Amino acid sequence: MIFTILLIALAVVVGIQFVYYVFILGRFSFAKAQQITANATPVSVIVCAKNEAENIKKLFPILMHQNYPTYEVVLIDDASTDETLELFEAYEKEYANVKVVKVQNNETFWANKKYALTLGIKVAKYGNLLFTDADCVPNSSNWISHMSSQFSEKKQIILGYGAYEKIKNSFLNKIIRFETLLTATQYFGWAKSGKPYMGVGRNLAYQKELFLNSGGFVNHMKIRSGDDDLFINQVSNSSNTAVCYTPESFTYSEPKKTFSTWFNQKRRHVSTAKMYTAFDRFQLGLFYSSQLLFVLLTIILLVFQHEWLLVLGLVILRYLFTWISLGYAAGKLDEKDTLIWYPIIEIILIFTQLNVFFTNLFSKPVHWK
User: Transmembrane region positions (predicted)?
Assistant: First the structure.
């Protein structure tokens, strides 16, 4: 009797996964290639840096050679102790469209990136704001053009794709990039379904007016992380959010190279999810629970060989539609090579996520310093 119940539970779990991967994530996975219509509205590119001198040397030349008629670059130095500020000041003297914001350590907002970003946003000259991190590089000289093309009278938020660089012969790199692919497929899929819930600060745009009218980060200023996802979760809706996923709109970051540093990064990201809306916490929890239950129920039923042909059929069906959905998404986001190890990577991620959850219960992750 108990195994029959477990078999029914597995079928329900597979059904839940089918709805997610085909009808929700599929809104992005199976969407047509995106067409870009030029938009020459002035843009303020905002970069916040703390001890990022070496990365800035890579990023800045790319920002200065964008094929876009009118834009400025706002460089925020958040109390760096290396030569970041000196570089910024030199750039400001050389380029008329560069503006530097110097942030001093503030006892109330100590080591809070949101405070630094707020200062930068307030001095931005233009109404459309485009964000990336100091350790990122745009994939092309048309980055601003493609991201800003999605702005319109109604669309005030643009969600972009922040990818990670590929490292040959690194299995950890495939894990990181697959997780990034899955996360992007989720937030793109939900945005296309009319329920946007997050974006990534590595590649994100929104209007200054929206930021100021919504109170900016005031509702979660005390939480060190979440300058991207918590803000988007707070202000986005079906009518004001668009997505941009052309290859020229991607940004690329250097990925973590050890499991421990990646694990700590995941802890920071996960710690903000508890502040999402009730619906978003529910849908994310249901998605993860269905992944975990699928693995556990499959193992139990196959070990005890209960209706193993039926179980195997459900497993094959589940991997078939998930592989197809993620395959189409990976094609759009140039991550196809991560799918070779998909079943193994997925299991690793499921139990890593579980580990992150329990670890965060007993200790707080380290944030922006």
Answer: 6-26, 284-304, 310-328, 340-362
pTM: 0.94
Structure tokens at 60: 């800045």
Looking at the DSSP bridge assignments, the partners of residue 98 are 73
Query: What CA–CA distance (Å, rounded) separates 103 from 49?
Result: 10
Closest CA to 162 of 149, 141, 176, 174: 176
Residue 333: count other Cβ atoms within 10 Å of its Cβ. Answer: 21
- Structural domain boundaries in the chain: 2-28+279-362, 34-258
Q: 34-258: which CATH topology? A: Spore Coat Polysaccharide Biosynthesis Protein SpsA; Chain A (3.90.550)
Question: C-alpha distances in angstroms, 197 versus 157, 237, 250, 276, 278?
Answer: 12, 8, 20, 8, 11
Torsion angle of alpha carbons 265, 271, 275, 280, nearest 10°? Answer: 70
Amino acid code (one letter) for 218: V
Amino acid in the structure at residue 129: L
Separation between Cα atoms, residue 122 and residue 119, nearest integer Å: 5
